[in-house]
């Protein structure tokens, strides 16, 4: 291998290693800080075992000075001023011994705390950058949707947003005259879970968490009218909660509806501030109830109600 190729390969390796270290620097700093704090505590405990020796030596020296000061035979050669100077020297030497004894543990503890604070500072800067990127993307998407609505109308915007596809379904109903079950054709829309936004959810009998596990919704009823009444009641309650608490996280609304919490739901939500034009100052579930169905490609078509929440965004930056 030529020298130039070796240098190039080494530069690539060093650059990649440097980037990985920079990428994981918060975790590295925190681990180093925690280890340092524990080590400094152990060192301080070990140093404490030697404190008795230092105190005994100091006590002995102080007593010697006081004896000399009280001895009349050396009164002319050893005055009270000389005794005070010697006591000062003894105390200074004691302080230096303590500094030498505890110095390493104190320095290590200070560096460890600095390491943890540096990690927090890096994460804070990254969160600020992520918030700015999210705000830019969110603004661009909302402006795009407003242009679509202005030119083509809300129905077209809705079809494009959720990739709606019209479909006829067989639904089993009770005949009012005979009281027997019968199948009727009903029109609806097919929506794939992959086509809805990250905050939208289907209110249905079974839902999935972020790990893909199915969870039974305790609030789901086979009668769709009951489901609509429940959702509207929760929407009113969420708005009352928003006015009372001044902020509501999306995960709080998910829990009201029996839906699993998400990582994003811990950050996004709503803020109530009538003087703030950044948010809507109300919670809208984006309720669609026109026999909306979706395909999970396993169990066929399941009837569900699509909810798309008008979150204000990252409310940590809005509060």
Description:
By secondary structure, the protein is of the alpha+beta class. It folds into two domains: 147 residues, no CATH class; 125 residues, no CATH class. Helices cover 55% and strands 15% of the residues. It is built from seven helices and eleven strands. Strands 1-2-8-9 form a four-stranded mixed β-sheet, with no helix packed on it. Helix 2 runs antiparallel to helix 4 and helix 3 runs antiparallel to helix 4. The radius of gyration is 36 Å and the shape is elongated. The relative contact order is 0.08.
Key features of this structure:
single chain; alpha+beta; 7 helices; 2 domains; 319 residues
Q: Count the strands?
A: 11
Judged by helices, strands and strand pairing, the structural class is alpha+beta
What separation lies between the terminal Cα atoms? 59 Å
Low-confidence parts, pLDDT < 50 over ≥5 residues? 294-300
The tally of domains stands at 2
> Describe the biggest sheet?
4 strands, mixed
Could you say which overall geometry the principal axes of the C-alpha atoms support? elongated
Tell me, rounded to a whole number, the average pLDDT. 79
Measured as a percent range, the helix fraction is 55-70%
Radius of gyration from the alpha-carbon trace, in angstroms: 36 Å
The count of helical stretches stands at: 7
Beta-sheet strand percentage?
15-25%
- Strand order of the main beta sheet, please? 1-2-8-9
Helix and strand element order:
HHHHHEEEEEHEHEEEEE
InterPro entries: DUF6353 (IPR045933)
């Amino acid at each position: 291998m030529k020298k130039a190729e070796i240098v190039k390969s080494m530069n690539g390796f060093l650059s990649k290693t440097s980037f990985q270290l920079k990428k994981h620097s918060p975790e590295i700093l925190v681990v180093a800080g925690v280890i340092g704090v524990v080590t400094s505590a152990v060192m301080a405990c070990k140093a404490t075992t030697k404190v008795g020796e230092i105190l005994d030596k100091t006590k002995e020296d102080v007593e010697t000075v006081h004896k000399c000061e009280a001895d009349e035979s050396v009164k002319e050669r050893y005055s009270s001023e000389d005794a005070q100077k010697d006591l000062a020297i003894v105390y200074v030497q004691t302080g230096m011994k303590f500094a030498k004894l505890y110095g390493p543990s104190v320095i290590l503890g200070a560096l460890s705390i600095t390491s943890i604070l540096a990690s927090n500072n890096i994460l804070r800067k990254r969160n600020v950058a992520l918030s700015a990127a999210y705000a830019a993307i969110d603004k661009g998407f909302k402006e795009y949707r407003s242009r679509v609505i202005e030119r083509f109308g809300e129905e077209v915007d809705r079809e494009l947003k959720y990739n709606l596809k019209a479909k006829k379904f067989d639904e089993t109903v009770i005949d009012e005259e005979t009281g027997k079950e019968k199948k009727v054709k009903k029109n609806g829309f097919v929506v794939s879970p992959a086509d809805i936004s990250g905050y939208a959810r289907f209110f249905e009998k079974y839902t999935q968490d972020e790990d893909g596990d199915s969870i039974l919704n305790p609030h789901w009823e086979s009668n769709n009218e009951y489901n609509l009444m429940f959702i509207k009641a929760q929407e009113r309650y969420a708005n009352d909660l928003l006015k009372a608490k001044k902020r509501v996280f999306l995960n709080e609304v998910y829990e009201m509806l029996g839906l699993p919490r998400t990582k994003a739901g811990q950050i996004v939500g709503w803020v109530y501030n009538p003087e703030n034009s950044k948010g809507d100052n109300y919670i809208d579930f984006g309720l669609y109830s026109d026999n909306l169905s979706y395909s999970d490609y396993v169990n066929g078509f399941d009837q569900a109600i699509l909810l798309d929440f008008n979150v204000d965004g990252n409310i940590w930056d809005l509060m």
